Amino acid sequence: MKKFLCLLLALCLLLPAASLAESGAESLPVSYNWYEIFVYSYQDSDGDGIGDFNGVRSRLDYIADMGYTGIWFMPIMPSPSYHKYDVTDYRAIDPQYGTMDDFRALVKECHEKGIRVIIDLPVNHTSTRHPWFLSAVESIQKRTFDSPYLDYYCFTETPSGNKYVKISGSSWHYEEQFAGGNMPDLNLHSEAVLAQLQDIVTFWLCDVGVDGFRLDAVTSFHAADVAENVATLDKIKAMCEAAKPGSYLVGEAWVGQSALAEYCTSTVDSFFLFPSAQAEGFIVRSILGRSPDAKKFVNGLQSVLDAFPENTVLAPFLCNHDTGRSIGLLQARKLPERAKFAQGVLGMMPGYTFTYYGDEIGMVGAGDDPNKRLAMYWNDGDMTTQPPGVTSLEYAYPCVDDQLADPMSLLNYCRTVNHARLASPLIALGENTFVYYDANVVLMKREKDGECCWIAMNFSRKTEMTVTIEAAGLTIVSDLVALEGHASLTEENGITTVTVPPYGIVVLE
Length: 509
Ligand SMILES: [Ca+2]
Ligand SMILES: [Ca+2]
Fold this sequence. Notes:
By secondary structure, the protein is α/β, with parallel strands linked by helices. The chain has 15 helices and 20 strands. It has three domains: about 25-120 and about 190-425, Alpha-Beta Barrel (TIM Barrel), CATH 3.20.20; about 130-175, no CATH class; about 430-509, Golgi alpha-mannosidase II (Immunoglobulin-like), CATH 2.60.40.1180. It has an eight-stranded parallel β-sheet with strand order 11-10-9-7-3-2-1-12. Strands 13-14-15-20-17 form a five-stranded antiparallel β-sheet. The protein starts with a helix and ends with a strand. One calcium ion binds next to loops.
């Protein structure tokens, strides 16, 4: 009887946890299609011109319809800067964007629509106005050295190198990896700082309900010491697993492929795939130029797959808030078909893709950071104010409303790409094999658990191409049309021949 009562009690204790897990975000599948949002520039709801959470909330139907199943919010915590990468309070919301209740409501509605949420976590540094820093500096200036936060930063009287800033009225300096940013580096060796971090990630994951974090500036955690940085990344991952198992972490390690491969040995789920991004990335390089070269794509992706540990989840992207926008990288202001094809190639990458807001409508921007963070171009009457410091303001492609109405728009192409990824999860999750390739065409196979899908991409913008697959009974699941014409297939003696129009991409199962 006693045993039975114990069992009953144990069951009662277990039940609430189990039902919570089934009803909440835990039951959502992992997102393959992430969308990066700069709240400031996305959608205003209260008339002050600055984007906010309720504004984003009013656009969730658009985001869900586009096939984005995850949102990465750039920093949302209180900060003196417009970009908010210098935080003054890790457990609050910047009032420019709304209240904590607004954010909770936004997260809840995202989950109801099947959208996961990760937030930027800039913990390499704080703002110089963070109370921890103010307290520590004050005790240094007063020579009392009694602040409980002295250990939180990297103070020294004997600075080496140029990454230190002198504290006025004292002989002490603080470390600042991002020179001139008023962003003093936290001491990530400090047990007290790590305890704060555990508390912070637990708050956002468990109390607020986000699904993970984008980890900012991880290469600066311990200057350029990769092994130390990886060790700290492992600690952060363990903190998140302790708080909420299965939460997703993606790190920003803006380094070349071999260093990136070292970061991928950490337990953090993903690192942004910089080798795929920007003008020198293998996606843009394979498409640019007088004649396309699919081999650059093949070599680029294969090289990454060879270099990275096997369990790495790739996080490919073309551009983000720090880089020039993809239309400029692709020189595609007048070539929407090229912009589309690049989004299609990105969409056929294994792993989880990240799209920067506005890229789906061909927004442009380069040079000074604010130029890369312009107001989302919904229509001429409905936009936020521009971020401070914009020096080049231009929209090269039509607004969202116009592109929604045009079946051949870049927006509708991106929508089709996202839905192709959702229709064939093996694109994201399968193991890649290059079955055939030449300068014009690539045939890839993605396999997992005995199932597979096939992807053919035609990098030529002039010539129709055919590829053959040694399999029968295949059907076209997704047919991405960047220019014109549709893919088709014939089958004979167990061999499938696929015809792909110029800039065409086709998924078969
Ligand atoms: Ca507002
Ligand atoms: Ca640091």
